[in-house]
Amino acid sequence: MPKRNHWKVLFSIAVVAFFAYSIFPIKDQEFVDFVKIEAQARQSEFDALLQEAVARHEARQAPSAFIALKQIAAERKVDLTASYFPKLNLGDVKNIEKKNAILLDHLLKESKARLQLGLDLKGGVAFTLEIAPSALANMNTYERKEKLTKAIDIIGSRINAFGVTEPIIRPVGDNRLEVQLPGVNTKDNPDVIDSLQKPALLQFRIVHPTLTPAQVAQTGAIPPFDYERMTLEEDSRTGTQIEELYIKRVPEADGKIMKQAFAHHDQYGKSEIILQFTDEGRKRFAQVTRSIVENAQNTGVTGRLAIVLDGKLYSAPTVREEINSPTAQITGSFTDRDAQNLANVLNNPLDVPMIVMEQYEVGPSLAQDAVDSGVRASIIGAALVAAFMITFYTTGGFVAVCTLAINIIIIFGFMARLGATLTLPGLAGIVLTIGMAVDANILIYERMREELAEGKSYASANRNGFMKALWTILDAHFVQLIVCAIMILLGTGPIRGFGVTLCMGVVSTLFSVLVIAHLTLEWFFATGLVKTFTMRRMLKNIHVDWVRFGKPAFIASWLIVFAGLAVVAYKGTGVFGIDFKGGDAITLEYKTRIDTGKIREAAAAGNHGEIVPAYISAIGGSQEMLRIETETGKSADLLATLQKTFPEAGLTNLGTSVIGKTIGDEILYNALVAILASMGVILLYIAFRFEFGFGIGAMFSSFHDILMAIGLFVLFGHQFSAPMVAAILAIAGYSINETVVVFDRIREELRLNPNTPLREVVNNAISKVFARTIMTATTTLLASIALWLWGTGVLKDIAFTFTMGVLTSTFSAIFIASQVFYWWHKGDRKRVEKHQDVRPTYEWQGASRASK
After folding, report:
1. d(Cα 694, Cα 687) in Å, to the nearest integer?
2. Coil, strand, or helix at residue 248?
3. Which carries the bigger pLDDT value, residue 175 or residue 244?
4. CA-CA distance, 739 to 744, in Å (whole number)?
């Protein structure tokens, strides 16, 4: 291997090692066992403390060893960090109890698996929030709905900033919302809800300029009636400081004036918080601070403005001058950690107070047999793709499979680093990514096949084939990255999450194929380790007049699209599942536990539509209940069927509630905007890199494929759920990839054959990539069909959608995109050659060659 590649090898090893390390630990570890290993000093003394904590838990004096250890440290005022974990830097926190809480929470988090399982596989913790009754007094039904919708968006942005955590956040009735968080349990820490991001009501209030509770107690003065007594506790570098203040009850401003807040260091290294205001917020804040300064001039006492969050006084910085600027600074004796925490809670504040009404643990929504079948289907799909590649490309196939394994490691490592949650549909998406990722390998290998047919050596064929396929691969993947960027910027919730994970999948595919696979083949050929490089064919080279069949194929496909859209219009909201339109949630008491898989079977046999069963138990309680989500109005009939099917279970209805949709109107709107914006960007990029007619064809075919997938999905009687949004967006990405490959070959044919009519150019280009297109489609179909045949529930829906999408995308790359390009230019290649990139290359033949 040339020395110039040594740095690439070292870089590749470092990247793979980093992401592989990020995955571990794969499973949760017992807290006591984990901290025993992690202790860095005075091991025997810490072991004795742990044993005492375990004994206290076993004696039922504490709900867990984790809580017991926290209690013992608080009772004895033991600084756990200084005594046993000195390498963990918490020096900026002086309060021992707070420092111990930060340390133990950190250790508990570190003991958990890096990649947590979703609500469908493992369950989690749920809590119900209710708008405070005092805030409901003057609200009509419409206002309640608006406030609840806004609360869902804000809490979702906090819990699921990148869209990869996969929580469930939905309205319950007209004044409550339910939040279900995956990968969380109360086994070690029953107070885990307290550590979750709670809703925050931010208020800016004036501090009484002259009176304090201490002065009132000393002088006997009457407390100001329009102020309330609040305690300010600040953990500074000199220790914990407590100050009692009178804070005005009516706020001067609330969180609406805020745009963003972030922690910052001033020129002396002290922590401060920067506030960025909205335009209206800037004006209001200037008015408030001006009035405080004017009052200070009259009283001679510097005024203060308090920051109150959910009724708790967080800070009361002084106001020395009117603040009329886009930003303001909150200064004080902050530690770095407190400054960051305060900045975090200042972002995305709610404008109504909400109260935690219920807290309970949620069991997995999928039965174990459904999980097992999904994992089995995923393994079969991956194995089929690997077997296909090795069968047709032998050594190259083996290299492709190895790079796929690296690709998966990078994707899992990235998800772990991002705090993503792995669900069964997510696992299916990764399997489908495997099927699509080999496309880049196939492009290179097919180019190598052409080079070998010309008598080139293996090393030369590898080098030339790689270079000829490089820009095709980069163009196809760069378009996908642009689409991902649009989803991340314009999308919310699962749309943004899909954009993030797809983006990482695209980048990891490029890295594993263009760097690792290419380096490996170079090494094989340079060292002579590989003597033969066998490549088999699925299809022989063919030549078909594709343009001739373009018009009838185009008409037929759009008839199917319109038929599907007609069914969508006819069924209306009937095409949507619980995720999109909400439903009922019935809570049942039972005597004998029923497997959730059997509940689903009974519901399907009784034609009760979509259901989501899960066992729940109140946090701190021992009674477990069965909770089933159904379509609206079907809960009573489902209960009757279950009572008849499982009489021994003794099912009793404890109550039914109305649940809202988890995919809100804003998410759907943002998804639509993201798709339309993607179409526009595709047009512009392809027009820039290729030619405008290519851009029109690419945009038209992508739009066609999305509509075709939706139409076929509904025609076959399926209902849309949250994972289906991601599946349809994935089809758009796959469609672009297929189209760019065909367009790149058309562009090449235009350059190499200056006198060939456009019709023949298009036909030749499609014929040359047809075998590769079928190979790529086959690998992806193997993965999706495996999920379809051996998966259950939502996996079947995802696999069906993607199977239809692969077939449609393959069809449209040949009969839609290419034909639209041909028709756009009216079959005249001169209209195409106006663009520099597709002008033909002319060559003089003789003793020397020159080109222009």
Report:
1. 6
2. strand
3. 244
4. 9
To 5 degrees, how large is the angle CA 374–CA 377–CA 380? 150
Distance CA 426, CA 198 (A): 27
Residue-wise pLDDT for 28-84, tens only, equals: 888 889 999 998 889 999 999 999 999 998 888 887 888 889 889 989 888 898 889
Q: How far apart are the first and last CA of the chain?
A: 36
| Distance set, CA 276 to CA 258, 483, 690, 839 (Å) | 6, 30, 43, 52
Q: Return the CA Rg of the chain.
A: 32
Whether residue 367 is predicted with pLDDT greater than 80 in this model: the reply is: no
Q: Classify residue 221 by its DSSP letter.
A: P
In this structure, are residues 347 and 260 in contact, taking their beta carbons and an 8 Å threshold? yes
CA distance 450 to 465: 8
Q: What are the beta bridge partners of residue 241?
A: 234
Residue 444 contacts residue 469 (beta carbons within 8 Å): yes
CA-CA distances (angstroms) from residue 506 to 170, 276, 735?
Answer: 32, 35, 14
Single-letter amino acid, residue 723: P
**Other CB atoms within 10 Å distance of the CB of residue 622:** 6
Q: How many residues does the chain have?
A: 852
Residue range 494-551, pLDDT digits in tens: 677 777 777 888 889 999 999 999 999 999 998 888 888 889 988 877 888 999 999 9
Q: Is 206 helix (H, G, I), strand (E, B) or coil?
A: strand
CA distance 538 to 528: 28
CA distance 41 to 23: 27
Alpha-carbon dihedral 513, 518, 520, 524, rounded to 10 degrees: 140
Q: Is pLDDT at 280 greater than 80 in this prediction?
A: yes
Could you tell me the CA-to-CA distances from 613 to 178, 424, 471 in Å, in that order? 16, 16, 49
The b-or-e profile of 105-139 (16+ CB within 10 A means b, else e) is eebbeebbbbbbbbbbbbbbbbbbbbbeeebbeeb
Structure-token match 């991340």, residue found: 488
User: By C-alpha distance, which of 376, 374, 386 is closest to 422?
Assistant: 374
Query: For 379-423, how does the pLDDT look when each residue is reduced to its tens digit (9 = 90+)?
Result: 998 899 999 999 999 999 999 999 999 999 999 998 888 888 888
Instruction: Please write down the HEC assignment for all residues of 130-187.
Output: EECHHHHCCCCHHHHHHHHHHHHHHHHHHHCCCCCCCCEEEEECCCEEEEEEECCCCC
